[in-house]
Design a protein that fits this description.
Elements (H helix, E strand, L loop, with lengths): L2 H5 L1 H18 L30 E14 L5 E4 L2 E4 L2 E9 L2 E3 L8 E17 L1 E3 L6 E3 L2 E8 L3 E10 L2 E10 L19 E12 L4 E12 L12 E11 L4 E12 L16 E15 L2 E16 L3 E12 L1
Antiparallel strand pairs: 1-4, 1-5, 1-18, 2-3, 3-7, 4-6, 5-6, 6-9, 6-10, 7-8, 10-11, 11-12, 12-13, 13-14, 14-15, 15-16, 16-17, 17-18
């Protein structure tokens, strides 16, 4: 009954990997944690079937991401060398990640390589800009917008299959080549290198159509040379569960947990440790369809956040189209 799912595993695999590699660091202004409320990990970058191996060859997932967050007027953030109050951000991104899966096993698993790129628009507003945490006001309300290219995110993933059990290990880097200016509130690039590594598990039962995925990782961030700000070590966990209601469609829930393990540091970290956390939860829907003789995949999901600390809080949504090449 679920032969379509078997044929489309490589597309889902590519989708999950691209969410990992492209979305993770592309968004400097995205409120997650660390400097400016920003982390390398992008909330929700892993989803259903994240650890399932796929067919060898090329694929091209395209991802549209939207986020809307509000830091409230009483929360302070260090943003591009400034201390800001009442940070509000709206982000729209288009991600494209060429991905290649090797046919020859590596260490008994399937090796997949990808490089993610992003183009998007960021709109940022603050209630006040301060000179220091003591509260000396330089300006009142301020807004900034930026439409530009973001950083690059190469990644490598190994996936293993053992019946209904699937496992994975990944390594991803953030290469700071995106648009960044010290005096701007809205930046697409992070202006610092990052490394992220972790592993995951997917339970996939073709007979019942039930699926569960969990992926955990740690991020090490290098110092931003323009602000002398170094984000702490971050931990993150992405969760997804779904049920196939037909051969083409599955529905379910997605969630994430972000927790910063160590504080921010460097001369630019004038707000102190700034250790952040947040959780998110929401629905998802996936649908398989044919393009000629090959099968494509569309996934839509959304998250609403709670329990945010030292970061803006809001919601984000994803639309992913995984195309076979």
């Amino acid at each position: 009954m679920y032969k379509d799912l078997i044929q489309a595993r490589t597309l889902i695999k590519a989708m999950a990997l691209l969410l990992l590699s492209s979305a993770g660091t592309l968004v400097s202004p995205l409120a997650s944690a660390d400097e400016g409320g920003v982390s390398f990990w992008l909330p929700g970058q892993f989803g259903s079937l994240a650890a399932v191996p796929g067919d060898p060859g090329w694929s091209l997932p395209l991802i549209y991401f939207h986020s809307s967050v509000d830091g409230e007027g009483s929360r302070e953030f260090s943003t591009a060398g400034k201390i800001t109050l009442g940070l509000e951000e709206d982000i729209d991104l288009l991600l494209a990640v060429p991905t290649y899966a090797f046919a020859k096993p590596v260490w008994g698993g399937q090796l997949t390589l990808s490089v993610a790129g992003v183009y998007g628009r960021v709109d940022v507003g603050v209630n006040a800009t301060l000179t220091d945490p003591g509260g000396s006001v330089l300006s009142g309300s301020e807004t900034d917008s930026n439409t530009a290219l973001g950083d690059l995110f190469p990644s490598a993933t190994l996936r293993w299959n053992h019946g209904v059990h699937n496992s994975m290990a990944y390594l991803m880097a953030g290469v700071p080549v995106g648009s960044y200016e010290l005096d701007r509130l809205a930046n697409i690039g992070t202006n610092h290198w990052s490394l992220d590594a972790g592993g995951g598990y997917t339970y996939l039962n073709m007979d019942t159509g039930r699926e569960f995925s969990a992926v955990a990782g740690l991020t090490y961030n290098f110092e931003n040379p323009d602000t002398n700000y170094q984000n702490g070590i971050d931990s993150h966990l992405d969760l997804a569960a779904s049920q196939f209601v037909s051969e083409q469609m599955h529905i379910g829930l997605v969630g994430y947990i972000f927790y910063q393990l160590s504080g921010d540091s460097g001369p630019g970290a004038v707000l102190g440790d700034f250790q952040s956390r947040v959780i998110g939860l929401g629905p998802q829907l996936g649908y398989f369809f044919n393009i000629g003789e090959k099968q494509a995949y569309l996934n839509v999901k959304a998250y609403w956040e709670a329990e945010a600390k030292y970061r803006p809080e809001g919601w984000n949504s994803w639309v992913t189209l995984a195309l076979p090449l």
